[in-house]
Structures are given as C-alpha cells and as structure tokens.
Amino acid sequence: MASTTHAEWIKFRTVRSTVMGYAVTILLTLGIGALITTAIRGHWRTMDPLRRLTFDPVSTSLGGTLFAQFAVGVIGVLFITSEYSSGSIRTTFAATPRRIQVVLAKLAVLISVTTVVAEVVVFAAFLLGQRIYEGVVPTASLASGAVLRSVILGGVYLTLLATLGFGLGLILRQQSAAISVFTSLLLIVPIIVFVLPQSWQDSVSRYEPSSLGHAMMSTSAPLNMFGPWTATLLLLGYVAVVLAAGASLLVRRDA
Amino acid sequence: MISVEHLSKRYGDTLAVNDLSFEVRPGVVTGFLGPNGSGKSTTMRIIMGLDAPTSGLATIDGKRFRDLKTPLREVGALLDAAAVHPGRTARNHLLALATSNRIPARRVEEVLEFTGIAAVADKKVGGYSLGMSQRLGIAAALLGDPPVLLFDEPVNGLDPEGIRWIRAFFRTLAIEGRTVFVSSHLMSEMAQSADEIIVIGRGRFITQSTVDELTASADGTVLVRSADNAALRRLLEATGTTVDSANDGTMTVRGTNAESVGTAALAAGIAIFELTPQRASLEEVFMDLTADAVEYASANESTPHG
Fold it and tell me: Which of A140, B52, B192, B206 is the most buried (most CB within 10 A)?
C-alpha cells in the first residue's frame, strides 16, 4: 500500500494540471476573498443596519472558496479521468491489480495534498480579509473557538469537494461528464430548488453541497441551515456514497 | 508459461472470445495470429486481469494475474503504447510504475538506455512519435525483468530499423528462457519473428503449431501446361481433383502432386510442357485457416437466438 501511494504521489505531482489546479485554487480563494472584503469595507457605512447586525466577518472573508471549489473539484476529477482518457489506467492496473488499493492510494494523495493547500489558503484568506476589514468593519479573531472552527472547516470543505470530484470521475470515467455533473450539483441544483415553492425551498436547499459549505464556514448557524458539524457530516456522507459507488463500479468493470 | 483454459468473453450479443484454450511455453517466441477483431487484444487483456472473462481461466505460471503481488516482476506487457498521460515525461512515467512494484529507480535508467529513449526521457510523452511510444511501452514491460512478456501488435508504427531491432529483441528474450507472446494480424510478420504460432479467428482457436508445420500442412497446388489441356483436365477431374484453367494456357491442379499429374499425362499420351509444384505461402495458409472460421461464425450468427 505504501508503494502504491508513493507511485500515485509521483503521478500526481508530475502533471501540470495538478500544479495549475492548486495555483488557481490559491488565486481564487485569496483574490476573490480580497475583492469581497474590500467591497464590503467600501460599502460598510452605507450598509443596511440589519445586515450589519448579522454580518459574519469569517464566512465573508472565505467567500473565495465558493469559486475555488470548482478548481479543487477539477483536480479530483482529472486525477482519475486522465487515466481513462489516456488509457494509462490499464498500465496502472497491470502494475497494481488490486484496484481498491489504487483508489485508496489516490485518495490518500489527493486528501493529504488538498488538505495542506486548502488549510493554508483558507487561513491566509481569513487573515487577509480581517486585515482589509480592520478599522472599518468588525473583525474576528482566531482566539475564538467558533472562528477557528469555521476557518478549519473551510479547508475541510474544499478537500471534501476535491474528493467528490474524484468520486464522480471514478463513476463517469470521462472528464467532461464528471466536470458537468460536479458543476451541476453546485450550481444547477440550487437553481432548480429556487423555483420550488418557498416552504419546500427552506427544507430542501439546506441539503445542497454549497449550503452545507456555507454552514461549515459560518460562526453561527445561518437561518434554515444545519449546524457546522451536521453539515460536515452530511457532506462527508455524500462523498462517501459517491466514492463507494465509484469503487464498486471500478472493481466490476473492465478497465 | 501462460495458460488459457476454455476462455470466453461476451460483449452484449457478440462473443469476442469463444471457448479458447492454449498454452504459451517459455523459451520460444509464440505468435498470436488472427485477423483484426478476432479477439487477440481481448484475450491479452483478460490474461492481464484488465477484463474479466465471462467464463474460463487465464493463468500465468499457475496464478491468476490479480493474485500477483508485484506483477511487473512476473509479467511485462505492451498492450497499448499510447496509454501514457501525455503531459508526463517518460522518466516520471517509468519511475511511478517502478515505485508501485518496489523496483529500484536505477532500473528505470537501464530500460531507458536499453530501448534507446534515454535522450528524450525528460520530454513529455504527448510529443512522442508512435515509434518512441512503442519503445517506452517496451521499456515499461521490461521494468520488472519479468519471465513472461506480452506484446500486442508491437511492430505497429516502428520503422524498418525498429522492426529489425524488435525481432532480434524477442529472439533474445526467448533465448534467455522467457515466455514471449506476441500478437499480430500479419502472417508475414509472424513468420519472421515467431517460432510457434497460435491462430485464432472470430474468437475461436484454429490451430497451434510451428511455422514450418503450418506451411507443410497446407495443400500445395500444381501448375501444368500440356498439349491437350481439355483431355488432361477430364482425366484429372475423374480422379477427384479440382482443376482451374487460366487464359494463358495453364491449369492449376489442387488436391494432388506433380508426380501424379505427370504419371497420368504419360499414361494418356499427353505431352507436358510445364509442370510446377507450388507451395502455399504462409499468407495463403492463414487466409484459408481464418476463412473457415469466418464462414463458421457467420453461419452461426445467422441462426436465430433461441
């Protein structure tokens, strides 16, 4: 297992798409975060008092993750679908016939690298946001347990979405299909939910992956949403189901 | 040794491999011959544990592929040369493969040198010519120094120099006592690189023999030109042989030999101008062998499923 993981690590770091994917992740999380917080700072004095009251300096500074989630998703998708598009999956399985071992090795690499990058970048985005808010907008401090939790879970959210992309790639085996489904889950499902009657919306929309992400990154549970830990567990559940489906297909299908 | 027992593979309605059984021995180059779409690649993928057989068993030295702990050390395969991430360098591709089977990194350098791609090892595989990709595929197959090697259509895309090199290379591997199993759809290629040939058609086993046996077993024909072709023809056809006349005054006689034709002509007092025994070429043998399989299969397919 250690040698399989080491081999997957070599494969992961020796293609440009991985490096590019993480570069985009960092750029989007920090860049969009800086844009959002700068915009809020600029409008703060004219902002609606009610919105000022419910203002969350943590989740707003992590707003870039809602864009970066697509970059990490694509990293996850490509890690497996590029093996199918090039045909190298056969070489991989001819070297490691125990396919579950290949899946676990890839997951170990994807999760550990994404966790490191995502945690570093969400902490950086948080600190950058607070620096931008400073003096005008109320800021948050990592000394608070709820703040620390929200920032950490922001990184966890990105890692879980990378894993979700990987799981979809495992099932669909085709890059374009997997990326389409991934994007649909995050963008199209909320639109569909939006046209439902209001009472349904309130009970359904909280289950959307993006709502779960919002809940994970909020210091206090927003209206009609799950608490941060419930949201984390639910998202973990989604990812586990997709991965289990992908892995069982992988074992049964011809490579 | 590779052993295939009653192997079948069904894709929907098509039986790509149909109750196939054979053994590939070490120490010789064994050709795996069949027309395109006859099930060669499917059989090789099943041997390599990539596709699951519908029924039957394929083993390598008595073990199923998926039970091998470090398969690269036991079986090397070149199935599809282009099957490498185009954005990765050859060295990194081989390094990842070697690592997965605990093969030391210096072995990567050895196989790069041996296959002659060391100079381009740090270039992305996406820019490789087909010939370079084939060499990389061969390098990957050799990584674990395995006793059993499979090559699916290895000659495709190689230049004449590369083809000479690869034939000599197969020979060397066989002399070293390895099992070398090489597929091709070209009989002429097999005739030059293989000692023994397994012929399949439409997924079915047709024959397994040495190249010499294969040509010897084929019915030869006799080319004859005489003073009275019509009379000779009647005479020969009466003995149950088939005769084809050509416009240039020659006839091709099947199912007999030159001695019988000459003796028959002498007895009837017909002067013979030309009498040439003709050996079937390997290509013709192959066409004859596989034509039967094609006929059998299409007759079989026209029967409604019941």
Answer: A140
